[in-house]
Amino acid sequence: MKETNSTAPIRDARTLGVPKMMILGLQHMFAMFGATVLVPILVNSYGLPLSIQTTLFFAGVGTLFFHVCTRMKVPAFLGSSFAFLGGFAAVAGLESGVYAGMDPAEKLQYACGGIVVAGLLYVVLALIIKAVGVHKVMHYLPPVVTGPIIILIGLNLAPSAVNNASTCWWLALVAMAIIIAANIWGKGMIKIIPILLGVVGA
């Protein structure tokens, strides 16, 4: 296999070989399954009856559609997005006007309708990005802009993380230590599979 620059992006995962693809796929499964299930659990805690089974089913359908669109070149699983939790929480808390006394199942329909509109906006933005080019768009969205957004999503999830870790602090700390060490001092494959190492090691 031809040597490639370790910092260069990999456009076709098949160049990695089957063993590395399987390891990365296993890590992705652990990371995405947990995230995909956690979102409906959190939404249910807001009082909206979002089904875990439905979430998993459509995550699978979306993933298959993604693989068709990318011609099976990207070993990815498309799960739930934490970015919409704020919207779910906002709709769950609405108690005035037409929302006064509204059944939680009906409120869920409004929240999911908002996500559909956001999805359509994503399509429009994707077409714009394709038309003007990724590099021009990234000029207006550098890491200093996108980074804080990701940090805010993480901070929003921090209470859930603390609550889960409190059931067994030593195990949570061991997993965190392994993941941090692999990210900072790991080389090669070790550096890109920290989540898998954290799960297996802990």
Q: What would your notes on this structure say?
A:
- Helices cover 71% and strands 0% of the residues.
- It has 202 residues and is an all-alpha fold.
- The chain has a domain at 10-132.
- The chain has 9 helices and no strands.
- It is globular, with a radius of gyration of 20 Å.
- Helix 1 (18-46) runs antiparallel to helix 2.
- The two termini are 34 Å apart.
Strand content: under 5%
Which segments are poorly predicted (pLDDT under 50) over 5 or more consecutive residues? none
Tally of DSSP β-strands: 0
Question: Helical residue percent?
Answer: over 70%
* Biggest sheet architecture: none
- The shape is globular
Q: What's the tally of helices? A: 9
What value does the Rg take, in angstroms? 20 Å
N→C terminal distance:
34 Å
Return the structural class.
mainly alpha
Provide the succession of SSEs.
HHHHHHHHH
What labels would you give this structure?
single chain; 202 residues
How is the secondary structure organized here?
Elements: H1 18-46, H2 52-69, H3 85-92, H4 104-132, H5 134-140, H6 143-165, H7 169-185, H8 189-192, H9 194-201
Helix pairs in contact: 1-2, 1-3, 1-9, 3-4, 7-9
Summarize the structure in short:
The protein has 202 residues and is mostly helical.
